[in-house]
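User: Okay, second chain of the day. Same drill as before: sequence in, structure tokens out.
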Amino acid sequence: MPATRRRALVTGVTGQDGPYLSELLLAEGYQVAGLVLPGDVVPDAVPAAVHLLEGSLTDGASLQAVLAEARPSEVYNLAAATSVADSFDNPVAVAEVTGLGVLRLLEAIRQADPRIRLLQASSAEIFGGATTSPQDEGTPLCPLSPYGVAKAFAHQTVQHYRRSRGIFAANAILYNHESPRRGTGFVTRKITLGAARIARGLETELRLGNLDVERDWGYAPDYVRAMHLVLQQDVADDYVIATGRTHTLRELLEVAFSVVGLDWHRHVVTDPALLRPAEPVRLCGDANRARARLGWTPTREFSDVIREMVLADLAGLDAEASPPPPQGPVRG
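Assistant: Same drill. Structure tokens below.
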């Protein structure tokens, strides 16, 4: 008899990472379900083979219903209110989804089937005010934003359910990771799209906040591969997923604008209104545990990722500007 196909549930399936993770899981032979909010617009990047189920991390009953229908052996929680900047304006909403939502999901798993394995997409923002660099799994939590606080609550809730409730629950502490699928609300995509629009004569300037921000940027497909590896281990644990190298926004601008042959200094304007109340200055991850236990290493260099994003944005703008294909003769 053929082996039973593994089942996975991916929350946040419509974000940047969800489609990449779904593609990986389908290639591994999983049946994949994706959690979407009622009325969600599902991007074309989500594979057609993903079975979409409506629910919300703010509604425990809906999570129980989704688990009953999907019957997963693995749950990948990528859902969150993801904008750090917006979290200062909407801290309660962020806490409901990004923090308490994980508690609701863990309770739903405990009640439905405690054998289900959970991967929580944690964040480097839990280390926002860290006084040491690079950060690893033992670095004290010190979030600087409502988003970071909510992620820290979720991170420690996962640890509690692992230690005290017997759930296979693991945190992947994800540092910044990018791709052409990154949403336009994120500064990396704002820059790559801005460079493309300026190159095509659609804009003349790009307004940004603190250009000295330093981040550890990786490639999204590498990071979803790490998520999958975390749930294949014999024992649940937490893993920093990072490249171990940092770059400033100035460096990112240099790469992005060089792709289109422009000098970013001529087009970028620093806007004080875009400065955050509290901003981690340097976040750099130590992924030695992931390398040693998971055999995981990043495959793409920072500059290659940014170039890919700019080229994809140029192609998208050119496609929008192209006239529609000619119609054939109308048959009467």
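The chain has a mean pLDDT of 93.

User: Thanks, on to the next one.
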